[in-house]
């Protein structure tokens, strides 16, 4: 491997490790990465892109549901449950954690708590989205420079 590829590989490993260390992703993300290989080099990016699409739809639905004069907490909880499941499946740990708190607020029918959780959830979602998009850019640079999986 030439110097550029090694440098990008180190950057990719360090950045991925920082996401684990900061709690943005967990072991489930590693398991997802293990399914990616030369025959399907964009597997993780494709799965995570579906998570992004689904999450943004659910965040919009949550905003609408919590904006109603009478809140249907079962509907809100259903959306949060879906988001918790999809975040769990890709290893988005911080998003998953907020969803657990959010579901507690739904069970208690705590409208203010739900609104606060929605703000925190949106913030954590967009943070993890940004971080994973950065990870994918580094990964693409690594591949374009001649790197290959598994590392």
From TrEMBL:
<keyword id="KW-0932">Cytokinin signaling pathway</keyword>
<keyword id="KW-0539">Nucleus</keyword>
<feature type="domain" description="HPt">
    <location>
        <begin position="40"/>
        <end position="135"/>
    </location>
</feature>
<protein>
    <recommendedName>
        <fullName>Histidine-containing phosphotransfer protein</fullName>
    </recommendedName>
</protein>
<dbReference type="GO" id="GO:0009927">
    <property type="term" value="F:histidine phosphotransfer kinase activity"/>
</dbReference>
<dbReference type="GO" id="GO:0005829">
    <property type="term" value="C:cytosol"/>
</dbReference>
<comment type="function">
    <text>Functions as a two-component phosphorelay mediators between cytokinin sensor histidine kinases and response regulators (B-type ARRs). Plays an important role in propagating cytokinin signal transduction.</text>
</comment>
<dbReference type="InterPro" id="IPR045871">
    <property type="entry name" value="AHP1-5/YPD1"/>
</dbReference>
<dbReference type="GO" id="GO:0043424">
    <property type="term" value="F:protein histidine kinase binding"/>
</dbReference>
<dbReference type="GO" id="GO:0005634">
    <property type="term" value="C:nucleus"/>
</dbReference>
<dbReference type="InterPro" id="IPR008207">
    <property type="entry name" value="Sig_transdc_His_kin_Hpt_dom"/>
</dbReference>
<dbReference type="GO" id="GO:0009736">
    <property type="term" value="P:cytokinin-activated signaling pathway"/>
</dbReference>
<keyword id="KW-0902">Two-component regulatory system</keyword>
<dbReference type="Pfam" id="PF01627">
    <property type="entry name" value="Hpt"/>
</dbReference>
<feature type="modified residue" description="Phosphohistidine">
    <location>
        <position position="81"/>
    </location>
</feature>
<keyword id="KW-0963">Cytoplasm</keyword>
<dbReference type="GO" id="GO:0000160">
    <property type="term" value="P:phosphorelay signal transduction system"/>
</dbReference>
<dbReference type="InterPro" id="IPR036641">
    <property type="entry name" value="HPT_dom_sf"/>
</dbReference>
<keyword id="KW-0597">Phosphoprotein</keyword>
């Amino acid at each position: 491997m030439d110097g550029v590829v090694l440098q990008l590989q180190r950057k990719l490993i360090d950045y991925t490790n920082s996401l684990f260390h900061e709690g943005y992703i967990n072991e489930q993300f590693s398991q997802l990465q293990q399914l990616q290989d030369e025959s399907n080099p964009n597997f993780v990016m494709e799965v995570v892109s579906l998570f992004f699409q689904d999450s943004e739809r659910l965040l919009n639905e949550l905003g609408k549901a919590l904006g109603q004069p009478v809140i249907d907490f079962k509907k809100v909880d259903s959306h949060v449950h879906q988001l918790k499941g999809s975040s769990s499946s890709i290893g988005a740990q911080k998003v998953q954690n907020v969803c657990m708190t959010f579901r507690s607020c739904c069970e208690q029918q705590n409208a203010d708590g739900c609104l606060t959780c929605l703000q925190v959830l949106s913030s954590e979602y967009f943070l993890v989205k940004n971080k994973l998009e950065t990870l994918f850019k580094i990964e693409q640079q690594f591949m374009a420079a001649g790197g290959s999986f598994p590392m």
